Amino acid sequence: MTTATAPPPPAAPRAKRKGVLGTRPWVAACFLLPALLLLGALVVYPIGYSVYRSLFDASGNGFAGLDNYHEVFTDDRIRTALKNNVIWVIVAPALATALGLIFAVLTERVCWGTAFKLVVFMPMAISMLAAGIIFRLVYEQNPDRGVANAVWVGIHDTFAQPAPFPGAHPRPTGDLAAADGGSFATKSAVRAGSPVALPLVAVKPEDVAGAKEAIPAREVAGKVTGTVWMDFTRGGGGTAGKIDAGERALAGVKIEAVKDGRTVASATSDSDGTFTLPSAADGARLRLPASNFASVYNGVEWLGPALVTPSIIGAYIWMWAGFAMVLIAAGLAGVPRELLEAARVDGANEWQVFRRVTVPLLAPVLAVVVVTLMINVLKIFDLVYIIAPGSSLHNANVLALQLYQSSFGTDVNQGVGSAIAVFLLLLVLPVVFVNIRRIRKEREGRR
């Protein structure tokens, strides 16, 4: 006997498939469409057009192939820009991150740490243009205007005695003549018992303000005497090479007696301009060393060809060290204190705790800061354009600035400018890929 089986129930209608976000794909596409259109208009199209334009000549009508890219690697200006970009990428992110790490760690336990972080972070509120103007004044060559040289000159003058009469020199027709190294020497040998006249001109009025009147030196048996003075009379008149009434003494001038190329005696002029040399100076020639007349020290040429790039990097670090400090401080707040205390209990000192525990735990945050700053410095333009003077702009050149000059400068060639833009994009891509891989590894580690 067979039993009849019941027919299977009708299949339920299949629900429409939803995406990973819990909604239908076409609904997600509608919401994403405006963003995709903006992305295409503002990112994809400019990149594509730059690649296309880089294959044409300056007029945009003649196909140039890879000639523009060949010029990128052969033009001296662009090669200098590339070299400077390499310096920027290596130095600026490393120094800014290191300073940020030091500031974040040192201010973690002090009561005024928040105020200090606020001051360090404050330059981030200033635009690159304003920061460039500020540091253009900071690096001014004149110590009366430039803060950097004012400090540097103050330190220099603390340890080095300035010249008493910078720029002074003898009359061309006198007995003093130019010697080696900027010094001045008598044309003939001097004799004991016969006073020597050493007149100088071109002395700055402020250098003899309050100086005594010069007096003729007295004859001293067996010794060489003389007078150093400013051979100039106000209102004209007077006799050249002779001490006239009202002419000022030059105190503090060093005089050396030289025989056969050796200094046998030396003296310094007194407040009345007179000096006395021992008998060893008899028959020698008198020399006034160049140290008496050296130009006033005006500091370092911060914006000269040699230091312009390091100086601009210093301005960049001033702005972005606060950014690195804030991110690192946020990461430091999440470091488990138990690990730090355990390391101290095991006998580690503070330096070992910092190097072996704190820095490894902060490695993901440090990587974020370094990668962000590397991408930022590859695009650096404002600071270089504002701070570097025209005479040093070639030495401070970077790719972004060269892109602007090639595309819109005096020698316009947008084909070369587009090639530089594409090359700059290719330089940024590896850094972006490294950042993406790091983010993916962090996500996989959290699962």
UniProtKB/TrEMBL annotation:
<keyword id="KW-0812">Transmembrane</keyword>
<keyword id="KW-1133">Transmembrane helix</keyword>
<dbReference type="InterPro" id="IPR050809">
    <property type="entry name" value="UgpAE/MalFG_permease"/>
</dbReference>
<keyword id="KW-0472">Membrane</keyword>
<feature type="transmembrane region" description="Helical">
    <location>
        <begin position="86"/>
        <end position="106"/>
    </location>
</feature>
<dbReference type="GO" id="GO:0005886">
    <property type="term" value="C:plasma membrane"/>
</dbReference>
<dbReference type="InterPro" id="IPR013783">
    <property type="entry name" value="Ig-like_fold"/>
</dbReference>
<dbReference type="InterPro" id="IPR035906">
    <property type="entry name" value="MetI-like_sf"/>
</dbReference>
<protein>
    <submittedName>
        <fullName>Alpha-glucoside transport system permease protein</fullName>
    </submittedName>
</protein>
<comment type="similarity">
    <text>Belongs to the binding-protein-dependent transport system permease family.</text>
</comment>
<feature type="transmembrane region" description="Helical">
    <location>
        <begin position="361"/>
        <end position="388"/>
    </location>
</feature>
<feature type="transmembrane region" description="Helical">
    <location>
        <begin position="416"/>
        <end position="436"/>
    </location>
</feature>
<feature type="domain" description="ABC transmembrane type-1">
    <location>
        <begin position="82"/>
        <end position="435"/>
    </location>
</feature>
<dbReference type="InterPro" id="IPR000515">
    <property type="entry name" value="MetI-like"/>
</dbReference>
<dbReference type="GO" id="GO:0005975">
    <property type="term" value="P:carbohydrate metabolic process"/>
</dbReference>
<feature type="transmembrane region" description="Helical">
    <location>
        <begin position="118"/>
        <end position="139"/>
    </location>
</feature>
<keyword id="KW-1003">Cell membrane</keyword>
<feature type="transmembrane region" description="Helical">
    <location>
        <begin position="26"/>
        <end position="47"/>
    </location>
</feature>
<keyword id="KW-0813">Transport</keyword>
<dbReference type="Pfam" id="PF00528">
    <property type="entry name" value="BPD_transp_1"/>
</dbReference>
<dbReference type="GO" id="GO:0055085">
    <property type="term" value="P:transmembrane transport"/>
</dbReference>
<feature type="transmembrane region" description="Helical">
    <location>
        <begin position="315"/>
        <end position="335"/>
    </location>
</feature>
